[in-house]
Amino acid sequence: MSVRTGPGPRERLLEAADRLIYSQGVNIGVDALLKAANVARRSLYEHFGGKDGLIVEVLRSAAEADAADYARTMDAAGHDPRERLLAVFDRIGEIVVLPGFHGCRYLAADLGLADPGHPAHEITRDYRQRVHDLLERELTALGHPHPGHAADQLLILIDGTLAAGATRPGTAPGAAARELAEHVIAL
């Protein structure tokens, strides 16, 4: 009887796809994914039904982790809704200057998948809605007169900061977005 000591094919596919899809985009070739995961093509189809299913699972897993990061960031900022909201922009400012930062994986997936019916779009929409809801809750607690609209504005700032961090390194988009967020929050 043999004992498995390393990750199995499913886990290797997820890890390789997470890394490659983030760094190279959703249009990475299947052969490159299989080679990076050191698995046979059969494993991709057995575990995910194909590349589309793998993309969906990678995005679903990332969305869970990223939404949890937003919640942790806000919780670490204390109980003041204003500080909790601004902490998000401080955190994003830290993220966009990390080595290996390639932008927002959800925006990249939406732009890279031309088929509007691709199941990954549902994951990205749900993720953005979760972030929107987190922001709106804080804005409501703050007593903002238009919390839903303000959450839309903050979400645009988040997307823009992540895009600018990837396309214009060295420009400190996090600091600029935080300053704009202060104006949105103050209304």
From TrEMBL:
<dbReference type="InterPro" id="IPR036271">
    <property type="entry name" value="Tet_transcr_reg_TetR-rel_C_sf"/>
</dbReference>
<dbReference type="Pfam" id="PF00440">
    <property type="entry name" value="TetR_N"/>
</dbReference>
<feature type="domain" description="HTH tetR-type">
    <location>
        <begin position="7"/>
        <end position="66"/>
    </location>
</feature>
<keyword id="KW-0238">DNA-binding</keyword>
<dbReference type="InterPro" id="IPR009057">
    <property type="entry name" value="Homeodomain-like_sf"/>
</dbReference>
<dbReference type="InterPro" id="IPR001647">
    <property type="entry name" value="HTH_TetR"/>
</dbReference>
<keyword id="KW-0804">Transcription</keyword>
<keyword id="KW-0805">Transcription regulation</keyword>
<feature type="DNA-binding region" description="H-T-H motif">
    <location>
        <begin position="29"/>
        <end position="48"/>
    </location>
</feature>
<protein>
    <submittedName>
        <fullName>TetR/AcrR family transcriptional regulator</fullName>
    </submittedName>
</protein>
